[in-house]
Each structure stands twice: as C-alpha cells, then as structure tokens.
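Rotation project, supervised by the postdoc (A.L.). Task for the rotation student: set up a whole-complex structure prediction and record inputs and outputs verbatim in this book. Inputs entered:
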Amino acid sequence: MTRVAVYGSTGYTALELIRILLRHPGAEITALTSRNEERPPIGEVHTALAGRLDLRCENLGPEEVAARCDLVFCALPHAASMAVVPTLLESGVRVVDLSADYRLSDPAVYETWYHVEHTDAERMARTVYGLPELFCDAIPEADLVANPGCYTSTSILGLAPLLVEKRVDPRSIVVDAKSGVSGAGRGLKLGTLYAECNESISAYGVGNHRHTPEIDEVLSTASGQTVEVVFTPHLVPMDRGILCTSYCDPLDPNWDEAEVLDLYRRFYEGKPFVRVVEHLPRTKDVAHTNFCDVTVRRSRGKLVVLSTTDNLVKGAAGVAVQNFNLMTGHPETTALL
Amino acid sequence: MTRVAVYGSTGYTALELIRILLRHPGAEITALTSRNEERPPIGEVHTALAGRLDLRCENLGPEEVAARCDLVFCALPHAASMAVVPTLLESGVRVVDLSADYRLSDPAVYETWYHVEHTDAERMARTVYGLPELFCDAIPEADLVANPGCYTSTSILGLAPLLVEKRVDPRSIVVDAKSGVSGAGRGLKLGTLYAECNESISAYGVGNHRHTPEIDEVLSTASGQTVEVVFTPHLVPMDRGILCTSYCDPLDPNWDEAEVLDLYRRFYEGKPFVRVVEHLPRTKDVAHTNFCDVTVRRSRGKLVVLSTTDNLVKGAAGVAVQNFNLMTGHPETTALL
Amino acid sequence: MTRVAVYGSTGYTALELIRILLRHPGAEITALTSRNEERPPIGEVHTALAGRLDLRCENLGPEEVAARCDLVFCALPHAASMAVVPTLLESGVRVVDLSADYRLSDPAVYETWYHVEHTDAERMARTVYGLPELFCDAIPEADLVANPGCYTSTSILGLAPLLVEKRVDPRSIVVDAKSGVSGAGRGLKLGTLYAECNESISAYGVGNHRHTPEIDEVLSTASGQTVEVVFTPHLVPMDRGILCTSYCDPLDPNWDEAEVLDLYRRFYEGKPFVRVVEHLPRTKDVAHTNFCDVTVRRSRGKLVVLSTTDNLVKGAAGVAVQNFNLMTGHPETTALL
Amino acid sequence: MTRVAVYGSTGYTALELIRILLRHPGAEITALTSRNEERPPIGEVHTALAGRLDLRCENLGPEEVAARCDLVFCALPHAASMAVVPTLLESGVRVVDLSADYRLSDPAVYETWYHVEHTDAERMARTVYGLPELFCDAIPEADLVANPGCYTSTSILGLAPLLVEKRVDPRSIVVDAKSGVSGAGRGLKLGTLYAECNESISAYGVGNHRHTPEIDEVLSTASGQTVEVVFTPHLVPMDRGILCTSYCDPLDPNWDEAEVLDLYRRFYEGKPFVRVVEHLPRTKDVAHTNFCDVTVRRSRGKLVVLSTTDNLVKGAAGVAVQNFNLMTGHPETTALL
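Outputs recorded:
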C-alpha cells in the first residue's frame, strides 16, 4: 500500500484524482491540502465526496506533507508547484506533478510562455515527461514525473505516429483544439460563468496558449526533428472532453486512410488506453475514462487527425494514476478501467 | 421620443433591456452607468452590443443621470436602488425600478427578508407594482413602478386566476420553481460557474427565497385574502427560462380541466402576453420573448398549474418595457413582439 | 465467476450496465442481444465500448440466452420482458428484470397504467422488488428481482423514513421530480431531439406517469398504510440525474430539521449508497455513481425532501448490479464505488 | 405589403423565418405548407408560435401556393425544392430558395456532392447567390435567389476580404467549423438525440460535407482565382451558432494584425450585419441576431480568421429576409435588428 497525498485538493483535477484513488487497491490517501486555514472536510470542499473519505484539507508545508506519505500528487498551479517540489523530493517522497512546472526542459522557454522565473530550473531537463505511451521506459524509476497538459496529451497522441514515423511535414501542422469548460479550472472568472459560456463556442489564447511549446517539445523529442505547431484552443459548452482536429501534409500524397490506420494500430499496439477507431471519435465516448480515441481521415491533400480524451482523466488525473501505476509496479490499468 | 437611461448596465438584465430598447421606436438611450471609473464602451462591457450603441458606461450620480433623460430604468441591486430612486424622482424623471426595493409595501417585511433597513420606507406602500396583467390601471400615471421579480411574475400569472376567482384554498399552495442560471446574475460566484451547475439540478434557498413575500403579498392583494405559499426555487442548466409548477387544492373537487382553462382564458382576455395553452408549456417556447405560457392539469385531488416565462424578458427587461409602454402611451406590445 | 447476459443491449441502461459489469470481478458477460439480425459488434452499437468487449449483439430467444449464462439482466421494454422472463426462469437462470413488468403486484393496476394485458400475472405478487435499502432480506434468495424505476427509487429513498416511521400524513405527498434526458431512452422521438429539449424545461405525463402506482405501492407496503402521491415528472436539459423535491405535512408541526435528519441517519445506517447530507443535494454529485443523496428542510408548514440519484446508475444499472451482488454473495458495493 | 408563403414550414429554419416575418411591417404570411394531410395549425407544429399566427400547414402544390402569394420562401430539403421552384417562377411569384438546389452553378458538381440528378439544371448558372455582402447588386432584380448554406456564409464572410484582395494563398485554406445542433435539422436521427450529442463534440462529414463545393465556388467567383478549401464541420452541444476557425497563409509574412483588421473594416464598410471586432468572437453574441462577427489573428506563420453567425438567422432565415428586403425595396435591416 502506497501512502499518497494530494497537494492542492480544491480543484476539479484533484476531485477526479481522489475519486480514482479511492478505487485503487494499492493507494491510501493520507493527506490533502489547501490554503484554507479552516481545515474544511474534503466532503465539504467537494460535496461529491460526502461520506467517501474522512480527511480534512489542511494548509501544510512540503515537509509536513512528506512526513505523511510516500508519494505526492502535486495539483498546484504552475509556479506554486516548483516552490514545494524540491523539498518534497529532498524529503524522500516521489512526486507526480500535475502543473506545468517540470514539463518543459528549457527554463528560457518556460519563462517566455509563463512570464515567471523558474526557481528550480536545473531539474527541468532531467524530469521525466509522464506520457506513458511515449515514455513508459523512464517512468517506473522516476522520482519526479511531469504529468502532461490536457491539450498536450490529446494533440500528441493524435500526431505522434505520423511524426515519429516521419510520414508528414513537421512544419505543416495545425491543431484546432476544443475543450470542455472544466479545463479552465475552478477559479472565479467571468468567462467561465455558466451564462457566459453556455450556448456558445469561442476560441481563446490564439497564438499564445501555454500548451504550445509543450506540444512542440514533446513531438520534436519523440520524432527527432523540429516540430512547431499552430495551436488554437476553443471553449465548448460541456463539462469535460477535448477533441483535437489536427491538419498536416503527408509526405506521400497517395497514402490512403487504411494504411494510415494500420500505422496507428502498430504504433499503439499494447498501449491499453489508446483506441485507434474507424468511426469519427466523440468526446462523450471517452468522458469519465482514461481512453484516448483517435482516427485519421484524408481531406483533399491533408490528413485530418481526430483525437479525443477526457481532459480531467486522460488529460490530468487519470494519466497521473497511470504514471503512479508504472512508478509503483501496479498494472498500468489499475483503477482506470 | 423618450430619453431613457439604464442605471446599472453591466448585468444580464441590462443587456436584455438595451437590446429591446434598441428596437423601440419611442425610446432613445442617452445614458448608461456602472461603477467602473474607466468609462468602458457598452460594446466592451457586453460584446453582444458591439457596433449597436455608441455610449460608454459612466459612474454617474442620480442628479447627473436625471439631467440626461426623462425616464430611468434602474437595474441596480436591492439596497443600491433605494439610494438613488428618491433623488431621481425629485429631479423629475420617472423610474422603472427593477430591484426589489419597492416591490413590498411593508418595510418590516422587507427588512426581515433582505436583512437591510429600508431608507425610503415611506414610499413603499404607495409604489405601483408593475405587473401589467393585474395592475395596468395604475401603471400609466405612475412616476415609480416596481418591476416584479422573475419568479414572482411567473408564479403569480399562473396562480392569479384561481385565487382572484377564489376557486382554490389559499393555504394549500406549493410553488416548485425552476430557473435558468442567468437569473443568478453576472457576479462571480462558485455556484454559477459552468462546471458547477452544468449537468446538474439542485434546489436552493428552500424556505427562505426573497421572492416568497412578494408572491404572498401580490396574490393576497389581488385576491383579497391571505395567501401564503411554500416556494422552492431550483437552478436548471440552461441560460434562461422559468417554469413554475404550482400545486393547490380546488374548492370544488369535481372541477374539470376544461372549465379551469376557460376561467384562465376569460381572466387573461385582452392580455397580449399571457398565452393560455392546452399543451404542457416548455420554457423554450417563451425564451427570448415576453410571453407567459400557462396551462392547468388535475392530478388526483390537486390542480397543477404550469407557467413559463423567460426570466430576463417577461421576468425582467421585457415587462420593464411593457411598463414603459403603458407609462408613455405606446401600445403595450411595442418592441416586444 | 457468474456468467451473465444482457437481454436488450442497445439502450442507455444496457450501456451503463455493461460498463459496470466490465469492472466486476465476479461477472463475465457471455451474451448480448438485440433484434438486429446483422449481429453488430457491441463496440459499434455503443462506440463508447470500442475495444472493451469482443461480443456481438445477437437476436436470441430466451432458451438460447439461458444456455449461455447463469443470470440475465433483462433490459427490454415493458411487455417485451414478460414475454421472455418465464422461459428464462424455467430454464434455470436467475433474472434481474429492469422493465416495469414485475414491479407491481396487482395485474389490474398494471393493465390500467400500461394499457396492456399482463401475460405472466400470477408471478407478479411474488416477485421481489429490488430496492435493497428496503428489501435486502428477500433479494439474496430471489430467482427474479424486479429492478425499480428511476423516479421510483429516488422518490422512495427520499420519503421512506418519514412514512415507515409514520411521521407525516400519507395523503399529503407531492413529488415534483426532475430528470435528465437519458431517462427518456434511446428511441427516436421528436421530444428528445437535442434542439427540442436543450435550453428548456417542461413537465410531462402530469397525473399519468407510470411510476406513480409503483411509488404508491412500495411506500404503502413499506409503511403499512395507504400512500397515494401526486407525482409530476419534468425533463431537464442534462444527460443524467434525477432530483425529487417532495412535499409533505409532518404530523408534529414542531418537528425540527435536525431531528428529521437524525431519523434519516438512523434509518439508513449501514446502507452504503444512501448519503444523508446537510447541504442541498445536486444531481452532479451523484452522477456516474450509485449514490442517493438526500436531505430535508422545513418550509413553512411543510417538510421538503430533496433526493438525488443518477437515473442510469442508482436508478437502473447500478442498483441492478447491487441486486446482483446480493444475489451472488458479493459485497453490496462491488464494482459500484 | 408583400404576401409571402413559407413552403415547408415544419423545420427549425421555417420557425425562425416565421418569427422574423411576424415582425416585418412589409410582409404578410398567407400560406404555410407541410406534407401532413391533417392541416395542423402552425401553433401546434411549432408551439412557440401559439397565438401568433392563425394559419394551418397545408399540403399544397406549387400552383396553389403561387395563387396565394407574391413571394415564396422555399424551405424544403434539397431535391424537393427543384421540383417546385420552376412552377412557382412560371406562375409569376418570386422565390427565395433556402435549399441547396440553386446554389451551385454546375449541375455536375451538384450531382457529385448531392448524389441526385438536377432536374432544373439550366437555371443553376443564372441564379443569383443570396449573400448580400458580396452580391447585393444582383439581388434586387432577381426572381430567384439561392439562399446560402449556413457554414458557407460564415466561412465566406470570414475569408472573402483576404481572397478578394488577394492577400493569401488560395490553396492554403483550412476551415475548421463548429455548429450548434439545430443545423442538423428537425428530422429523427440517432445522432441528434439529446443524450447522444449533449456533453460531446465530434467532427462529421470530414472531407465530404456538401457545403464544401459551395464555399469553393463562391470564393473562387468572388476572388477571380481557384479556391479549394479543406472543410471540417463539427457538432457542438448548443442549439445555435456557427464558429469558423479558418487558417491560411498570408502572401506577406510580415503583415500585422492591425493592418488585416483595417482591410476587413474597409471591405465591410456599409454592410450592416458584419461586425469586424477586435476581441475573439463568440457565437453567443450573435445568437438570435443577423450579425456575423469576425476578427483575425496571426499565429506563427498563419492567419487565423474567426467568424461567427447564428446558423438559423444569418445562416438561413435572417439572410433570407435580408434578401427579401433587397428584393422588395425595404431597408436591408428591416425586421432584422
């Protein structure tokens, strides 16, 4: 039994993570934190958890958290995470970090996109990127795993086969991404009020969304070539789900869809959470699951890749537990089917 | 042409009101206010109004507002309204007040439910209640009209025929009300975040919602007997619309549905915005309109009254313009069909 | 390992049931049926199941189904169910019937509400009603369990403590129920098109919904007195979830909320799926779970009971597995947390 | 006063059209059709119209329709439209055809995409395309106007300035389009059931949606060069609204956003329904209006054009009335603001 803590437990990702961990036979939740000094029971912070877990959210420092557990799921915002992760690691606990702080390898890129100096820059380049479908070899031994962004995972799982196998022009990629509103977090913002985003779709962060350099870096690393994508996120009136519609130019203009799908099937053989499907995937089918459904179509000269995940599960809490499973020697699918 | 101002123009009701007024041949919007010192153009405050109206939201006192217009639509929160209405009236402008401040006649009742002392108590009992279907005689000459609450109008229009005609037990009434989220306003509250209230329904304010004494008072006044309702509001995952499902005991247990509907048709004859229908009404049919659809069914011993409105239109901005029409001698339906 | 079949596998309840059974360590799905002669793979009928289960939906008769399994979840429509259940039972398999066919004990009542003659009437009165919170003693030994209706469970779990303990007037009950659209099934009907029911709420079946006699009978049986409720269902724009707002008159007008909640906590002690909460429950908190959240408020003279479930889980597929657990000696919560 | 008929009045577009026409001072609705032999009142076909219009839907042939009106809005499906339009025109009435039958000029292209032979092919090339922002000169005198498709208008209004002014590579265009569900019509299809498309987004018709050749042809004609777009439509869980996110390569890689927006403002000067905005447009702001909001961003090397409409208004019924206004000498905005 691994004793786990959730550092930062008031958001939607933390709720999802706790739900999954409560089903996990090898994890025991021993600490939950929030900055609220009143130590509210988790069942009040998230009424969905009423009666499920008799713990309070405590305002704990990293040493206190480390003293209570073997592994920490760090669900803090970026910048807050790098303020506690070094101490957690030095205290001997392992960390799955769900923030952006350790996803990029280059501090300069981090600072360009996040507008804050990285205070643990030296650790960035040697942190394992927690996308098991690409980096499962490094995850089991890692002390720190950087859990991917939700748009990032969904984009990468859609595009990796084409890029790794060098079948498309790495400079031709457009990712048009659509996300449910939970991806915007639980903070109070006018733009995420129900009456603002219901019955509406709009783009946001065009040209400057912070998942862009992460997609670039991971696809470049995985494929051994420079990949730079045009990435446009949209807010869709639904709770959860991401659909990435990605466009790229195949190197072989005559490549047909069946061959592309064969490539995908081979690439993801043995990966339990990527389903290469023939129909056009919809987010509903992966909602509340750790699956990524993906397919490809030709449209005139382009390949159109369609990939879907639940942003809170495969895009955050689910893949965090998938990483936990790899780190602790459980079957990859434990608590995730 | 009547010059009108909207006092408090950042909320959803104000947006709806401006939209309707822009279609009104007899109204010219000459001032808009907010407490924002930066004087934002209204097209930035409400992007839906981009290019429609070249005015800024200004932080104006009541004398300044009065100097620019003939009539003010006061769309401030309760308590804020009674701080400016006396000055507006003394400055010679007429007022349609969309807050709760002048809806009740008894200051003590106001203070019990709103937890604030009424600073213009003397004016309360002589203010005209702006529900045209019941009080159209008094509205044309009024200087101050108290625009009804959204739940209130919808409940009252459903129940008034039965109570005014004394066909049901006035102590038997349960109003189970369901509202879209825009009714909760544009303020930043956890409970109105998209990811909190989407895919969910819940009751709120059980036993203590502030529209309760308003429903009681208006139905009591209109029917000449003491009416006290059990009122339970619910939040429904949709932008707009109210459905009130009201239960009451008929005095004649053998009264049949056809006779009830006849009573309703006679009661609302000549009222252009109440549609007595035979089907079960749905909020979608009245969304973006000033209509109230109503029908009645028997269920075992009870009468079940179903009444629907758009909370922002017939429940707020639309009836405000309906009152404006009556006050300024326009046909009641101008700009509202 | 129990070999189970799902008889009628194309609807939403069947999808949910298969999802839960795939997590169950003691169940193996060995047959799925539909009337489609083309034997589609279940992953095409429900794309959410792509890659999860390598079975086809076959058009099988009851003997064929019985030959392949030990227990059948019968997810057929009413009337279709009673056409196969006798043969299934005679073939020696046990049945959890999710239709309405065996829920009522009196064939005449069935025929009045369902407008069809019952062809297995003799079995009705001796069938065990599968609401484990009230009838867990009889379920383990039953060969046929009648799985409750979704509105029924939610209403009954809200009202049972008050009626069984004889604390309210059994003739005073109004149940105002609100359901997500999945409750209306997967058939093609104008009223369940997205553009008809999105952004809308309406009542339906006022005074004649078929769950009414079921609520009456179960509450009457459980409480030893004649209960007759006024039941009004509404369609809410969300996928899943039921909220029942039930009104009744307490016998003791001075009974306070804290005492009522104490009664509920005692009544449901040891029942793992009923959570007596202090906050007003919302359907979101029980969505995708087998929980029923319930609380009570006083509003003027009335008690207002608020109870919530997921109509597809605790209202159908989840309680079916809960019954399966009791029937097969598994812990009641297996595969359901 | 122009007497108008709506040919095919049971769908969502017809409902929207009737609503707008009821506000039009120069139009009188004199006939409504459907194939239903029972002649239902329009207030039953569309309960939203209860009490608004005392007409029945009649099963009328084109001569009968022509005998009752001066102008027909033909809201039939494709193929059905070309079966009646010739007779209508020969009978001396003018036609705004909302189907696809007269939008394309080449019968072979029509047959390729619609899989049906065109029975009035000769008229195709000389029909005026009813997009007033591009073809307002030809519309006033036309007897037959082909009302554009909803995706088409939204795509074209976004891209036309760049292509007509020859500022982008006409072969570089990707249109990633998102639509509310009303765009899929009121027919009974599994894919448009609420519980199928709520809480979900998916692409459909990738590479083969019928609005593709229409976008190609209109943009090619307007810009005098061959334009061929990659077009991918998506279904979004909302009633109405289209957002087109269009990607293209600018000829001048240093062109900045401000200059692009200036070009757009000049291009649409004097066009009352296109709003060139600086913020990222959202469909909510144009819902229930005839506006198209558009803006442009640079993202790495690409221009990203964002254009929004209400698919039922500017995408169908609203532009039909805009065309009607031009054809009958009314101000372009009559009944549309």
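Student's summary: The longest helix of chain A spans residues 313-328.
Supervisor addendum: DSSP finds 13 helices and 14 strands in chain A.
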